[in-house]
Task: inverse folding
């Protein structure tokens, strides 16, 4: 199951990072295992900065996938390769290099900071850890630059404790910190889900600007398809740990094929009363609470409005349905 | 006030006492709500929308207090009511779905008993009747009637939220005030919960004030939309009109900042931050962020002015002295 290029014989140099068949099992109550992430594969190309969105609802495994890509959680099986090397088999030095190039931004700008550390100390920790500056003045210069890149002035931020900053400023500070190392990939887990619409637009635009300016790719984790459409080049829609549909963002969203993705798109509130929902959605929400065995059949079987017999017995594989569009549904299997 | 008006809020001011002075969270809000009408209130965090909701229900607690104004509900000023009079009217005529309410269900009490409790506390009804009615209520929001024998932890978020809808509408109130009632829910669940609430509301003919920061949810649900900024309503009109032709620069900014699936529009934030409500600027509160501001805006706060029937805006650009 390949998320993007299906040729399979690409040289690793073509990609900065490759996630291959990632599976993460957790022990559930009663000693059974369930797969929070079930066979996720994607690549971050080197050629040009790319935003890959991982979209899904709560419990879809998107955050777990992000943690594995960052090397913060070991997959049950599958690999994450950075520059062709398995990140979980790296030497300390190699991992340090990986960490420098693959940074993270998290959702909650209120909780990531030590409340007793001022902003300059927060930034200095990163500068020190990655040996980015050889003198105090050089460090200062780096900090000011990084702050400028996220539209913060040194006066606004540097000598402040986190509680003295607004939510938007804290989120910007987090991006500035990630920027210091000039990463090639930033894993951003719901970075704008807690900020207001106006700030959200600003932060997304800042991140898009940085993508161009510094060639930064993003693995963008979100539950919001409208934002994914605005922000990304590629999309992977996850449902209960499974990649149900993926490909080029425009191809997927202009022609969604998986019944889950279709339902999801139909259910999004649109800021336009003329596009108000006219009919009820065909979907039982009771079913959303059930967690069932995905080892047999399609993960979406029990709530699928168009399921057939085969869906209960055989797991559909990702098949190519367009130039850069893949879907895991028996409706489209040959 | 026409005979069709259910609620009339007049110049309502709700402040917070703080060591540094009064925080003017809601500062002179007026609007009317008709029968069977859904008013959406939208605004960013800290604009005073939840404070407004609690004041309408006379649920303000210190350090928050009502400085001035009236809330005329069905001909009575709710702010004058006390004790038993207030208790009688709540739930039966006015119900409230606060933010995060699905987590307010009693964890050690069966769902059915929680619904029965409400009905028995506010109406003359026998326990048997109440129980039977509870089962029917749950069915009306798409839950099996056996849910009455379940505990909250056995239900998912969406199911709990529907139990809340059942409880809030159990006594067929005339007005429902819902505050961010689908905010933490997943998209599919949110869609379903909105459908159930709207269906229930329409079937009992209640009016509703729906508060959320999400203009997309308002576009799907509200009849009229009020946009709040820094404690004031800056624009109020029919929901179609407001999205088609927003007037206030802040409303325009909010719409401009929100992506629309399938439209590929470029979004943009509004530069600057909302003012500190402890010491709001003397003129228009949006003045420091406004791109079309004039000198007058700096000194004089524009009132909410009628532009045409049912369409109001607080901006000097559209006239007024």
Result:
């Amino acid at each position: 199951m390949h998320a993007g290029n299906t040729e399979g014989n690409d040289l690793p140099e073509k990609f900065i990072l490759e996630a291959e068949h990632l599976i993460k099992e957790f022990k559930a109550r009663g000693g059974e295992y369930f797969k929070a992430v079930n066979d996720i594969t994607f690549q971050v190309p080197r050629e040009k900065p790319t935003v890959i969105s991982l979209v899904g609802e709560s419990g879809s495994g998107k955050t777990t996938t992000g943690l594995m890509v960052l090397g913060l959680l070991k997959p049950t099986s599958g690999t994450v390769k950075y520059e062709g090397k398995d990140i979980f088999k790296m030497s300390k030095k190699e991992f340090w290099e990986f960490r420098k190039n693959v940074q993270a931004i998290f959702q909650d700008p209120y909780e990531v900071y030590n409340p007793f550390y001022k902003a300059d100390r927060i930034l200095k920790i990163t500068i020190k850890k990655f040996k980015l500056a050889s003198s105090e003045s050089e460090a200062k210069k780096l900090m000011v630059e990084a702050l400028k890149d996220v539209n913060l002035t040194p006066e606004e931020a540097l000598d402040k404790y986190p509680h003295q900053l607004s939510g938007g400023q804290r989120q910007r500070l987090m991006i500035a910190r990630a920027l210091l190392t000039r990463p090639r990939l930033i894993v951003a887990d719901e970075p704008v889900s807690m900020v207001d619409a106006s700030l959200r637009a600003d932060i997304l635009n800042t991140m898009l600007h940085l993508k161009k300016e510094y060639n930064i790719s993003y693995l963008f984790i979100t539950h919001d398809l409208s934002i994914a459409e605005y922000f990304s080049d590629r999309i992977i829609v996850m449902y209960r740990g499974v990649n149900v549909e993926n490909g080029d963002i425009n191809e997927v969203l202009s022609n969604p094929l998986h019944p889950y993705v279709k339902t999801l798109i139909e259910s999004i509130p649109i800021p336009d009363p003329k596009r108000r929902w006219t009919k009820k959605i065909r979907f039982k929400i009771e079913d959303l609470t059930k967690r069932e065995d995905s080892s047999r059949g399609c993960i979406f079987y029990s709530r699928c409005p168009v399921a057939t017999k085969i869906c209960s017995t055989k797991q559909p594989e990702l098949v190519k349905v367009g130039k850069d569009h893949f879907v895991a549904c028996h409706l489209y299997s040959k | 006030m026409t005979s069709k008006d259910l609620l009339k809020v007049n110049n309502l001011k709700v402040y917070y006492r703080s060591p540094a002075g009064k925080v003017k969270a809601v500062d002179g809000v007026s609007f009317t709500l008709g029968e069977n009408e859904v008013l959406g209130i939208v605004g960013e965090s800290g604009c005073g929308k939840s404070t407004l909701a609690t004041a309408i229900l006379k649920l303000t607690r210190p350090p928050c207090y009502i400085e001035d104004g009236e809330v005329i509900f069905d001909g009575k000023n709710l702010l004058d009511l006390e004790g038993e009079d207030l208790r009688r009217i709540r739930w039966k005529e006015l119900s409230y779905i606060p933010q995060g309410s699905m987590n307010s269900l009693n964890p050690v009490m069966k769902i059915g008993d929680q619904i029965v409790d409400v009905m028995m506390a506010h109406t003359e009804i026998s326990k048997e009747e109440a129980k039977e009615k509870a089962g029917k209520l749950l069915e009306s929001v798409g839950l099996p009637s056996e849910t009455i024998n379940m505990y909250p932890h056995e239900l998912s978020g969406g199911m709990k939220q529907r139990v809340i809808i059942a409880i809030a509408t159990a006594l067929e109130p005339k007005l429902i005030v819902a505050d961010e009632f689908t905010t933490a829910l997943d998209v599919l669940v949110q869609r379903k919960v909105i459908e159930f609430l709207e269906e229930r509301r329409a079937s009992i003919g209640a009016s509703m004030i729906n508060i959320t920061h999400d203009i997309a949810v308002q576009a799907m649900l509200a009849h009229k939309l009020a946009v709040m900024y820094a404690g004031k309503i800056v624009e109020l009109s029919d929901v179609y009109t407001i999205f088609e032709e927003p007037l206030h620069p802040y409303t325009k900014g909010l719409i401009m900042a929100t992506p629309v699936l399938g439209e590929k529009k470029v979004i943009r934030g509004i530069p600057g931050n909302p003012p500190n409500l402890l010491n709001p600027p003397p003129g228009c509160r949006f003045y420091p962020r406004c791109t079309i501001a004039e000198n007058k805006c700096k000194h004089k706060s524009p009132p909410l002015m009628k532009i045409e029937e049912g369409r109001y805006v607080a901006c000097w650009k559209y006239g007024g002295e």
Q: What stands out?
A: The first strand of chain B starts at residue 5 and ends at 18.
